[in-house]
Amino acid sequence: MKRPRSMSLAAAFAVSSWLALTPMPAAAANPTAAEAPPSEVLEARESLLAHHLRCVVCQNQTVAESNAPLAADMRQVIREQLRAGRADDEIVAFFEQRYGAFVRYSPPWQPSTWLLWTGPFLVLIVGLTGLALALRRRGAFDPSLDVDDAREDEPSVDDLLEQGPSR
């Protein structure tokens, strides 16, 4: 059974937060000098990185979700680089150098991606403005054609009752 993506991302985020906030002794900072980190920690970091990188074949899935052979190769490279002691930023930079900024599942905030980040909000604002203008035009009426003025020429109900039935 496949776990929901939000649970796996939450678990990976918790592990990465714990790793970032836990102080390490100098020997543990360099995995070649001390023992390699436990496999659970490496698996959590691998999962986190795989969820942050886009499969360049599928383009709408993360490396973790994709079944493409290239995604499997990318996961293997992530695993090898983690065992070599590389930092997460270094691994992401490696893939960016190889595939471009597109490989990030969440693109960075930079001038070339400003439209990507702000585009949906701009479309929403334009759409709401158009809707407001259309509703204003539909609700607008000519004040010279007031509904009450048009009914003044017609006899009232009281007048009709006084006249009685007409034949």
Morphology:
rod-shaped
In terms of DSSP E residues, the strand content is under 5%
Uncertain ranges: 1-7, 18-34
- Write down the Rg: 33 Å
Order of helices and strands: HHHHHHHH
- Summed up, the helix count is 8
Largest sheet, in brief, is: none
The portion of residues assigned to helices is 55-70%
Terminus-to-terminus distance: 84 Å
* Computed structural class: mainly alpha
Residue-averaged pLDDT: 75
Strands, count:
0
Give a description of the structure.
The protein has helices spanning 5-21, 26-29, 39-52, 69-83, 88-99, 114-139, 147-150, 157-163. With 167 residues, it is an all-alpha fold. Helix 1 crosses helix 3. The longest helix has 26 residues, at 114-139.
Task: Set out the fold topology.
Elements lengths: L4 H17 L4 H4 L9 H14 L16 H15 L4 H12 L14 H26 L7 H4 L6 H7 L4
Helix pairs in contact: 1-3, 3-4
Features:
0% strand, mainly alpha
Short description:
The protein is built from eight helices and no strands.
